Amino acid sequence: MASTLGTGSRPLRIAIVGAGPSGLYAAGALLQQKEYHVSIDIFDRLPTPYGLVRYGVAPDHQKIKSVTKIYERTLSDARVRYFGNVALGSDISRAEMKAHYDQIIYAVGAQSDRKLEIPGEDLPGSFSATEFVAWYNGHPDFLDYEVDLSAESVVVIGVGNVAMDVTRILAKSIRELETTDIADYALEKLRHSKVKHIHILARRGPVQAKFTNPEIKELGELEIADVIVKPEDLELDAASQAELAADKTAQRNLETLQEFAHRPLSGKPRQIHFHFLRSPVELYGEDRVTGMRMEKNLLVTKEGGYISCEGIGEYEELPAGLVFRAIGYRSVPIPDVPFYDRWGLIPNEKGRVTETHKGEIVPGEYVVGWAKRGPTGVIGTNKPDAVETVYLMLEDVPDLPPVADELARADAIVKLLRSRSVEFFDFGDWQILDQLETGRGAAQGRPRVKFTAVDEMLRLVHPQRTQEESPASVLGS
Hints:
Layout: E1 12-17, H1 21-32, E2 38-44, H2 52-55, H3 62-65, H4 68-76, E3 80-84, H5 94-100, E4 103-106, E5 112-113, E6 126-128, H6 129-136, E7 153-157, H7 161-171, H8 174-177, H9 184-191, E8 197-201, H10 213-219, E9 225-228, H11 238-245, H12 248-262, E10 270-275, E11 278-284, E12 291-301, E13 307-319, E14 322-325, E15 329-330, E16 348-349, E17 352-354, E18 361-367, H13 370-373, H14 382-396, H15 405-408, H16 410-419, H17 427-444, H18 454-461, H19 471-475
Parallel strand pairs: 1-2, 1-4, 2-3, 4-18, 6-14, 7-8, 7-14, 8-10, 9-10
Antiparallel strand pairs: 5-15, 11-12, 12-13, 16-17, 17-18
Helix pairs in contact: 1-14, 6-7, 7-10
C-alpha cells in the first residue's frame, strides 16, 4: 500500500493549516517537486487567504503586498483547494485531520505578542502593537478594538519594523493614509487623532536596532512629522563599533539616524523622538496610563559576542497617554497540537513536529514559518524555511502509513464540513470578494477597500455563486 502513495491513482494527500506566506510557500514547493503526485488542501480560520500580507503588512506598503500574485498562482493550481473560514480545533479536530490526510503542515504564524512583564502593563491605554496593526489592517478579530487617540504623547516600545510601522501610521497625515487600503474605521479614527509626540524606546543602541533602512528612512519623509534624534545617543562604544563594521544594514541605519540628528526642525505639527539605551520599568496612572518610568542602560558584551544591556540605576519619566509594545510576536497553542510554551512554538526538529521539546517525532506532521522558528525574518524568509520542511516531508513518504482510502477521497473532507454546516470559503469565493474590494477601492482611488466582518464577507459572496456547484464541491466529486 505504502509503495503506491504519491502516484497518479493515489496522490499524496496533504493538509496545510494556515494560508499565509509560510503555508503558501510550502504549497508552492510541493507543487514544484517532481517525485510525487500531490493533492493539497489549504485551511484558514478566516475566509480570506494571505495571512500576514493582508493583516500584518502596513497599508502604505503596497509594493510588499504584490507578493500575493505568486500566492494566487499557487491557489489557482488544479492540485490545490482552499478552505477558508475553517478553524482547526472547532470546525475540525486534529485527529480528524490526521485521519483524512497523509501529511499535515502547520503554518499558523504567531498571532500573539510578548509581554513587558512590568508593573502597570495592563492599565487601559497600554496595548500590544500586534493588536493595533491587526486593527488598522481590518482583521475581523479586532473590529471591536478600542484605541483612544486623544493623547498628545504616545510611546512605542521596540525598534523593529513593526514598531516603525506603528509609528508611521500614527505620524502620517490623513492625506497620506487615505490612498492606502487601511480599514475605513481606522482611517476615521486617525482623522481625529490628537497625537503630537511619538516616542520610540530602544533598550540597546542604534547599531543593535532591528529596523531595516527603508523603514527608518521613511520616517524622514513624512508630510507632517519631524524626526528628533539626540547626537549623543549615536556615540558608539568599542563593541558597537566592531559590530557596525560587519553589518552594512546597521551602517546605513546609523547614517540615516545621523542625518536626522543634524537636520533642523521644520516646525511640523508632529514629532517622532528616538530614545536609545532606555528600558521601560513601569507604566503608571490611576484609571489609565498617564506616563512611563524608564531606566538608562549600559551596553554589555556577553560571552559569544552578543551585546546586551544592563540598567545603571538612573531613571527618567516620560508622560504618555498611550503605550504600544512592539517587542516580538509569539505563536498560540492549537487544541491538541504539541506546543512549547517557553519559546511560543510548535516543538520540532527542522520542521518535523515533535511531541515535546526535543521529544519524539510525530509521524506525518510538520511545521513551517514563525510557528517553527519564531518570529524572525521578513516575508521572503519563509520560502527557504518552507523548502527545508518540504524536503523532509518527501524524505518521509516511503515510511508513511497511508490514511484509509475512503477518507483520502477528495470529497470526504467536503462532506465532513458540510455535515457540520461549516460555511467554508473556496478560492472562487475569495476571487469574488477580491474583485468587490478592489472595485470599491478603484472608485476612491485606493488599492482596495476591505470588508472586515466575516458575516459580511459570507453574506456578500455566497449569494453571488452560480447555480452550479462551488469549485470545492466540484473538485470533491
